[in-house]
Amino acid sequence: MLDTFAPSKKQLHPRLQLVKPSATLLINERSQALIDAEKEVYRLGFGQSPFPVPACVREALQANAHQKDYLPVKGLAALREAVAGFYRRTLDLNAVAAQVMIGPGSKELIFSLQMVLDADLLLPSPSWVSYEPQANLLGRKTHWIDTREADGWRLRPDALDSICQKIANPNKLLILNYPNNPTGTSYSENDLRGLAEVLRRHGVIVLADEIYGEVSHTQAHSSLAQVYAEATIVSGGLSKWCGAGGWRLGVFLFPQELMHIQDAMATVASETFSAVAAPIQYAAITAFDGNDEIEKYLKGSNQILHWIGNYVYKNLIANKITMSAPEGGFYLFPNFNAYKNIFQQKNIHDSEAMCAYILAETGVALLPGTAFGRPAEELTARLSYVDFDGAFALENYEKYDSEDEFVAACCPKIKAGIERLVFELQLQ
Ligand code: PMP
Ligand code: GLU
User: What is the distance in A from the centroid of ligand 1 to the CA of 255?
Assistant: First the structure.
């Protein structure tokens, strides 16, 4: 027996060595710390919706503050029905309430999906920051699938096919996110059909992370569940289109064929988080039911994001920074490769050092491509164009006819941040 208690890192599970604090949450805290120290920071690192929660949804939360009981593990029945109705209405899916599960953020649901499946994880590179660390925490194997900048970083059916042929594990989980974080591009129905053919051939289960589906600004959003219904789980929630990331409410829609996975996840939920906060679930019914106010809010949000995305895109590509044009969500994935020699002269050889330099010199916070699975020496970064007052923008955007006028009047931090960044690069 030990006579003294000795705190030690050896008390941690060895898997913890494979993960570090999430890059997204870290940049948020780092940016705040710089702001607290009275530094000028352009918060283009963290990806949080800039818009307020619609008034009718806030009122629903107030009206339900008294809800105090634990709710069913899979979610409040009326909310599951509202979510099924949402998917029938927006994606024309044949959804019923039983197929829906509610969780404390889709991030937690994705973690629990990875936990219950005995599967290898397939991820197109780049992919959102948390999928692979979750697999690492669970001791699952990840296979990155390369994509090309010229294809808008979209997964190609032939690349998917060749990796599936190599993986010995018959259980495969692909996480496909569109509109995409970090690239800002999406998949057309035709793209999805091409992928579905390969997925079906290899029996791959897919988590279609469509959390930005309602924030699709250039084309109507299509879902893989429309063309690969039998093995696609659709993921969504209130965080992005409803401005409610901090409310922590995510949803999964399972196909009838995969209800055993939903049951397994409910078992995990019953032993871990129990159920999502009751007032939040009641309020979410209003959000998923939808109404004219929410339609107007979404129309405004998409117009605003379309304008800002285009503004940033056009000003950066005019300065030799390459990237795909924005189609949805609120991210761009600029590639600073044209400045490679200049960065090398400053002893900067990877995207992490590049982002640290840009933050120190310009105050512009970005996340390095490495956080999204890209090779370190590739000078890519994620830029999230959300540093503006969403409530003010929604109130005023209809007064403007063009993105330049709108950004100048309503998004001063975006304008100044992009100018600072471009100025710094031109100085070199
Ligand atoms: N997927 C993607 C692609 C995201 O950007 C986010 C943002 N946090 C999430 C999932 C998780 O969102 P939440 O847990 O808030 O539902
Ligand atoms: N999804 C956001 C991002 O990519 C942040 C929230 C999170 O990581 O949970 O920046």
Answer: 21
